[in-house]
Amino acid sequence: MTRAGRLALLLLLSYWTWRLLANPMRQEVVDGSFLHVVDLMFHEAGHIIFSPFGMFMTTLGGSLMQCLIPIICAVAFYRTNRDVFAVAVMAWWLGENLQDVAMYIDDARTLQLTLLGGHTGAEVEGHDWERLLTMMNALHLDHRIGHIVQIVGALFMLGGLGYGFVVAFGAAAPAMTGWRNTNSR
Fold it and tell me: Domain coordinates of the chain in residue numbers?
């Protein structure tokens, strides 16, 4: 990707970072994210993928999978091409997913989020995080855990953006291109 392409992508991610962090835990903002539908596909697939591991992992699998995909992609980008710019973007994507999960956790007691199918958790007898926190006897911690996850997500988004800008402006050019010191022989 060219420097101009990287900067254009970083500007788009900066805009979405501002939108998500200026309006934390707001469903209309999270759902309006260009990645929300992609995240949702990985979330739903996670329930199926983790289903052989019992009810707890089946339930956790949705949120877990949507956060694992950017990590898996980051590892693949780094191992195959040493592409640290792509790793920075994947860190941002992990943070964006954590924003989504944080909102879901925070809603565990109120059950007001509109879920897939157009109903709220209250209308369909709960949702993933209401079940998970109930299983762990921690439902009363939904807001606290949700806010911690939101902060961690914000840090990943900002860190990914910051490092992405460093790489895009050339400060990490040798690592970015897979450069190896051939003079050391």
Answer: 3-39+77-165
Three-state SS sequence of the chain: CCHHHHHHHHHHHHHHHHHHHHCCCCHHHHHCCCCHHHHHHHHHHHHHHCHHHCHHHHHHHHHHHHHHHHHHHHHHHHHHHCCHHHHHHHHHHHHHHHHHHHHHHHCCCCCCCECCCCCECCCCCCCHHHHHHHHCCCHHHHHHHHHHHHHHHHHHHHHHHHHHHHHHCCCCHHHHHCCCCHHHC
CA neighbours closer than 13 Å in the CB half-sphere of residue 142: 22
Q: How many CB atoms lie within 10 A of CB 181?
A: 7
pTM: 0.87
Pair 34, 61: CB distance under 8 Å: no
Q: What is the mean pLDDT of each run of 10 residues along the chain (185 residues)?
A: 90 94 83 84 97 97 98 98 97 96 95 80 82 97 98 98 94 48 40
pLDDT at 171: 57
In DSSP terms, which residues pair with 120 in a beta bridge?
114
Evaluate whether 3 touches 168 at the Cβ level (below 8 Å): yes
